[in-house]
Design brief:
Bound molecules: zinc ion
CATH class: Mainly Alpha
Structural class: mainly alpha
Shape: globular
Oligomer: single chain
Radius of gyration: 19 Å
CATH topology: Four Helix Bundle (Hemerythrin (Met), subunit A)
CATH architecture: Up-down Bundle
Strand content: under 5%
Largest sheet: none
Length: 124
């Protein structure tokens, strides 16, 4: 795979920034609603079962977004180190089309598929 050009890398960097911004906004909003749910259950115990379920669900969402946030942060780290766009497992360049749809991808499709099928254990 060819290395992404400087112009392509700059575009991907802009996309990463957009993701970071949108994630930050979503996180704030959800953290706020989790806090509000806590206050509700403290003042009214009558339907605490439902409240606990929805709180669990919201916390689950936050965890997923947090994972994406970590991926985006590690992509920025790779930009800094100059290894952005390289597969973290086989060190080949990740195809630009994959990066354009998933700018924080840290593995090429081959390694990603191997990890999902259990053939390869990815650990970073
Ligand atoms: Zn790979």
């Amino acid at each position: 795979m060819p290395k992404p050009t400087q112009a392509q890398t700059r575009r991907l960097q802009a996309s990463l920034l957009d993701i970071l911004k949108s994630l930050g906004a979503k996180l704030d909003h959800m953290e706020e609603s989790v806090l509000l749910a806590d206050q509700d259950s403290a003042s009214d115990d009558s339907d605490s079962g439902n409240g606990a379920n929805s709180r669990e669900f919201q916390l689950g969402l936050i965890q997923n977004e947090d994972e994406i946030l970590q991926e985006v942060r590690s992509a920025f780290k790779r930009l800094e180190l100059g290894t952005f766009g390289r597969c973290s497992a086989c060190a080949d360049w990740i195809p630009i089309r994959r990066l354009e749809s998933l700018p924080y991808a840290s593995y090429c499709i081959g390694c990603q598929e191997k990890s999902e099928s259990g053939e390869l254990h990815l650990d970073d």
